[in-house]
Design brief:
The chain is an alpha+beta fold. It has two domains: about 70 residues, Glutaredoxin (3-Layer(aba) Sandwich), CATH 3.40.30.10; about 130 residues, Glutathione S-transferase Yfyf (Class Pi), Chain A, domain 2, CATH 1.20.1050.10. Helices cover about 60% and strands about 5% of the residues. Helix 1 packs antiparallel against helix 6, helix 4 runs antiparallel to helix 5 and helix 4 runs parallel beside helix 6. The chain is globular and about 45 Å long. It binds glutathione. The site of glutathione has 11 residues, from helix 1 and helix 3.
Length: about 210
């Protein structure tokens, strides 16, 4: 039995959950798992982060490792193309999105979402690095209609959860959404949002966020 652990507000948990739903996997959800540095939690997920996956007595952390494991273990409904270069392109897109965009923008989240101000130096540094990540992404996106081309891939699951969050954070921090120069982005995200798995995960995220505010 597969059990995905995390919480509905986490973009990395949501990426993994969408991928599992799109692959048609049966799984349980523990959506009450918060990140922690408590020793008993670290025994399950060594960085204390979520998501993590429990599978047949083993525990696997890191959303990308989890998704690639599921891709290997359950290849019936693939989220990667067959062609090796196209597969690498999907991974390349995910690295741009997660390492060079989301992880960079994450340094702003405390400031813009939780009123924990960052220095002007950090804001400027993030802006510079983000511009590079977005420029790289721009060279690779296809929107035809999916981000890597004609097939839905794991890169769409990543794009759907990370890019709107980054767009919002940059709008709040700088007054401009970093994706403002990519007019295809909005209709593309809206198109993904029509798919049942994406819609369901997005609804659960919104409900969890609303519950947090009350
Ligand atoms: N590289 C990790 C990132 C996961 C991550 O950053 N999760 C956040 C929640 S969205 C978390 O657990 N943060 C707590 C922490 O960093 O200690 C993955 O892909 O799973």
């Amino acid at each position: 039995m597969l059990r995905l652990c995390g919480f509905h507000i986490s973009n990395y948990f949501n990426k993994t959950r969408i991928a599992m739903m799109e692959k048609g996997l049966e799984f349980e959800l523990d959506a009450n798992c918060r990140p922690s540095q408590a020793p008993e939690f670290l025994a399950r997920t060594p960085m204390g982060k979520i998501p993590f996956l429990e599978t047949d007595g083993a525990v696997l952390s890191e959303s990308q490792a989890i998704c690639e494991y599921l891709e290997d273990a359950y290849p019936q409904k693939p989220l990667y193309p067959r062609d090796p270069l196209e597969r690498a392109r999907v991974r390349e897109l995910i690295i741009y999105i997660e390492l060079h965009i989301e992880l960079v923008a994450r340094r702003l989240y405390g400031d813009v979402f939780f009123k924990r101000p960052v220095s002007e130096e950090t804001r400027e540094e993030v802006k510079k690095q983000l511009a590079k990540g977005v420029r790289a992404l721009q060279t690779r996106v296809k929107f035809a209609p999916y981000i890597a081309g004609a097939e839905l891939t794991l890169a769409d699951c990543a794009a759907f959860v990370h890019l709107p969050l980054v767009g919002l954070a940059t709008k709040l921090a700088y007054g401009d959404d970093v994706f403002a120069g990519m007019p295809q982005m909005k209709p593309y995200l809206a198109m993904l949002g029509e798919r049942p798995a994406f819609r369901r995960v997005n609804e659960d995220r919104k409900a969890a966020q609303a519950a947090m505010k009350t």
